[in-house]
Amino acid sequence: MNDEQREQIRDNARYLRQVRPIDAEEICEYVEGTPHPAVVRQVLREEALELGLIERDDGIFEPVAEEPVSVEFAGINGLPQEIHQAVEELLVAEYGAGWPDGRSGDALRSAIREFKQRYLTGEEVTYETETALGYAIYHLPAYFATVQYVFAELIADGLVPSHLRILDVGAGVGGPALGLDRLLPEETLVDYHAVEPSAAVDVLKPLLERTDQNFHCSVHQQPIEEFEPTNAFDIVLFANVLSELETPAATLEAATEWITEDGTVVAIAPADRKTATRLRQLERDIEQRADATVYAPTVRLWPGETPSSESWSFTRKPDLETPEMQARLDTGARARPPDQFETVENSDATQTDGESEGIRTTRKPGDGEFVNVDIQYAYSLLRTDGTQSIEFTPSERRFAAFRNTENHVTDRIDCVALKLSHNLAENGNPLYLLGDGSQAIDHFAVLTEPSALNEALERAAYGDLLSFENVLVLWNDDEGAYNLVVDGETFVERIPV
Prior knowledge:
With about 500 residues, this protein is α/β, with parallel strands linked by helices. Helix content is about 30%, strand content about 20%. It has three domains: about 5-65, Arc Repressor Mutant, subunit A, CATH 1.10.10; about 65-390, Rossmann fold (3-Layer(aba) Sandwich); about 400-495, CATH 2.40.50.140. It has helices spanning about 5-15, 25, 35-45, 50, 80-95, 100-120, 130-140, 140-155, 175-185, 200-210, 250-260, 275-290, 325-330, 455-460, and strands spanning about 55, 60-65, 165-170, 190-195, 215-220, 235-240, 260-270, 295, 315, 345, 360, 375-385, 410-420, 430-435, 445, 465-475, 480-485, 490-495. Helix 6 packs across helix 7 (about 130-140).
């Protein structure tokens, strides 16, 4: 097909999109040489992003909606079978049908142990094919779920357009991309750009081929520091990659310049203390460096204030069903005798594999070492239009700001704060991290006497805004933090926003 024929197809599509759905069989009659409808249909697919067209299942094209995306989201139970099958096909192609067993299974288990250990010690992970396949087994299911929980919040707030242009920085093996493809309605037109410099693209590219027909993918195999966008993005996504970048603050700052006027930078990080608190430090840096606003979840309630507390804040969602590929690798037959199983050490109790801090343990088949179903993560949504997910300005006459808590120790006060954790107490009184955006030291709500007056504290979701009346302020010298004691005299209410 020559350029003139292609332009005739585009011209016809531009006209028809204003009148009625576009049928390739109709257009071909108006194109010089009367090309086959299949050829016209392929041109329409290639030009869909520019023309703003989505393709229906019957092969007819129509304009993408102007309204934001809308979905009903009730959470994630597990990895869809078709995605598991796609990963399985890559594993079989590389190792054969018995990939979980023998030397191939040992090699994959060794790769997973190595990148987990490198993560714990802060070393760089090199992504060879084996490492990438190990990532697909161990991390892809959780990343697939996590991105949907985060984007569901943006969708609920009307911040995801139906014609969506997204940049996925450090796309890895495709967990976030597959999650978005699953979450977004079929009538969403997605211009998806992945930046991934490593050998992970060998897994990423074939998995992206499984996305919806209206999910148009481009892969840029280069470091993000060398990437030069040609158009603005509605969303720039950093999913579990900021800790691996050489200059995370500079790259995050650059991302605020790559988004549209009403775009969002989405940063997701693992829930461990080091990485989650580093994310909070980065969002504070970007606030100042890029004149950006923290849209969620750590909203600044008091104008002009930025917190300086540690703020180890992350959310937790229900566990996934164990993916079949993880179960198979976990129980696969080892090539070496049982007495040669590796001994590993976990140095961080926050890791999601269920190990306890400092405990050395000899691994055996089927003990869950290669099962990763916990969904807990820290995230930050940054915007440059000044908006926040919670538009609420406290009255200084009515509420005490956390920046002044040292003046209220042993007093009872009224205050407002965001609930920024699940129950952090393993035993004893329920404990929740709070934040109002002005705190220099961490504040925790301690529920000592549950009652109908304060039940909102336990029932509130992560990120909800709460008001506290008559809460007792104490200093916790052991933790170096303030405790807001919620007892029988305290009234807690969720503030609707």
